[in-house]
Design a protein that fits this description.
Layout lengths: L10 E5 L2 E7 L5 H19 L8 E5 L2 E4 L6 H7 L4 H8 L11 E4 L2 E3 L7 E5 L4 E6 L2 E11 L8 E10 L1 E2 L4 H7 L17 E5 L5 E3 L10 E3 L3 E3 L1 H10 L5 E5 L3 E6 L2 E6 L11 H10 L8 H10 L5 E4 L5 E3 L2 E2 L7 E3 L2 E5 H7 L3 E4 L5 E5 L2 E5 L5 E4 L2 E4 L5 E3 L2 E5 H8 L1 E5 L5 E5 L22
Parallel strand pairs: 2-11, 3-17, 7-16, 9-14, 13-15, 20-32
Antiparallel strand pairs: 1-2, 3-6, 4-5, 7-8, 8-9, 9-15, 10-12, 10-16, 12-13, 17-18, 18-19, 20-21, 22-23, 23-30, 24-25, 25-26, 26-27, 27-28, 29-30, 31-32
């Protein structure tokens, strides 16, 4: 059987009474290649239709910058920080491989976990990165290179089938015929494109491996296999075992959450599935209840940039207090088109109001002798039975209903004050209102709106 990029043949060699194994990659036949392409087409169609869309995931890492030193290249900076050159270039709008001394770079060290399987390796193909999980804990993330057009990396669920140090490489007939690659077998050594570590998948022809082309990391350049920086491949080799699950997914759009705030990462759609089309992203956000709570101008900028960085789409830095105290909620207040939106239940109760929900989802807030009625997705609300047009439609995000603050304060008789750049203060008229729950989520230090 012929493989896209390897041919693993285990050879036993007796030396000093010990048996050592070297290997070449398992080959993949043309028939297997067609089956892989067909399976990918089905999975890509499902992902494009949103059938495989993952839930909102946690944000990991931290915001980091780096100031380039004289003589440094982007490749040197990227490799030393275990990121890829392409990720650095996209995030910092750099087209060359060199950077001027003193240039401040934002490092791609914030990530949204695309999937947490509990155990195994997750490859997100458009992200060109893998995540390693053990005991439901993320233990590592590495940038990788994936299959180029015409040689797509396999999607689906697999397992680590074999692990070999210093493998031998045998070019496949397909590679020889299509690309003019020499048919000669390449033994272990500096000329071997597999490098010195191979971790084969349970589907013939694919694997994680080291590489003699580290500058390709972060690109779509292989014949289907997953290339790694040599030092990263060494670490992964020590972290995985034969039989460990592999989840190869295609998610160019991922949504994450940290401290009650929401983030969106959009990666280039390298296999041209259409998942990064504006309408499809809007559909994804709407299914999560986020679309009406997101500033449309900011969202369009994030989609257009497609730099893969987690940009904040919802959640303000300013603390919002009621009668001088913070309000605890799983989703923090945000601004949409200049309008503040807040969790209805938590803030209405903090202002002394009572809340009830009807069978049709309509919410009624009573307090201060008045009644406010509203419904998620409907910009027409009522105050004491009279229509009230809302600037922003209420929405439900992870079970929390959000609505314009102005409607709540109008109905419950409260005033809002704010000094530029400081906390928003809501005060009940006449001091009416309950004591809010102390212990609101901490202000997130991660910059947003980029």
């Amino acid at each position: 059987m012929r493989n896209y990029c390897t041919d693993l043949l285990v050879r036993s060699v007796v030396f000093a009474g010990l048996i050592f194994c070297c290997a070449a990659a398992l080959a993949q036949s043309e028939e297997q290649s067609k089956r892989t392409s067909a399976k990918n087409a089905v999975l890509l169609e499902q992902w494009a239709a949103g059938q495989q869309a993952p839930p909102i995931q946690p944000l990991i890492g931290q915001y980091e910058t780096y100031t380039a030193k004289k003589g440094e290249t982007l490749f040197q900076i990227a490799r030393s920080r275990m990121v890829s050159v392409s990720a650095l270039q996209r995030l910092n709008n750099i087209e060359t491989s060199r950077v001027k001394a003193g240039t401040r770079l934002i490092l791609p060290t914030l990530h949204i976990v695309p999937l947490n399987p509990g155990e195994g390796v997750v490859l997100n193909v458009p992200e060109r990165a893998i995540y390693v999980f053990k005991g439901a804990q993320l233990i590592a993330r590495y940038p990788v290179a994936i299959g180029k057009s015409g040689w797509q990396t396999a999607l689906g669920d697999y397992k680590i089938r074999n692990m070999v140090k210093d493998p031998t490489w045998k070019p496949t007939r397909e590679m020889v015929e299509r690309e003019g690659v020499s048919p000669d077998e390449v033994p272990a050594g500096p000329r071997n494109p597999l490098g010195d570590r191979w971790m084969g998948w349970s589907t013939p022809g694919f694997g994680f491996h080291s590489t003699t082309s580290p500058r390709s990391i972060g690109t779509a350049a292989s014949h289907g296999c997953v290339r790694m920086y040599p030092e990263a491949a060494h670490k992964l080799y020590d972290q995985v075992t034969v039989g460990m699950p592999i989840h190869s997914i295609y998610e160019p759009v991922v949504v994450g959450k940290m401290n009650g705030k929401f983030y969106l990462s959009v990666f280039p759609d390298i296999y041209k599935t259409g998942q990064t089309d504006v309408e499809r992203i809007h559909k994804r956000l709407k299914s999560m209840g986020l679309l009406d709570a997101v500033d449309p101008t900011n969202l369009q900028k994030i989609i257009s940039r497609a730099d893969g960085y987690p940009h904040r789409i919802m959640g303000a830095d300013e603390e919002v207090t009621v009668n001088g105290m913070p309000v605890s909620a799983s989703v923090v207040p945000s601004r949409v088109n200049g309008q503040w939106i807040v969790p209805v239940r938590e803030y209405s109760q903090a202002l002394g109001g009572q809340l009830s929900v009807a069978a049709d989802g309509r919410i009624t807030v009573t307090g201060n002798g008045r009644t406010l009625t509203l419904k998620a997705g409907d910009r027409l609300a009522e105050v004491d039975g009279k229509p009230l047009n809302l600037e922003v439609a209420p929405s439900v995000v992870q079970g929390t209903t959000l609505a314009p603050l102005g409607a709540l304060t109008q109905a419950l008789g409260a005033k809002v004050t704010q000094e530029k750049g400081k906390s928003l203060q809501i005060t009940s008229v006449g001091g009416v209102g309950r004591s809010p729950v102390i212990g609101a989520p901490p202000v997130n230090s991660v910059p947003g709106g980029r």
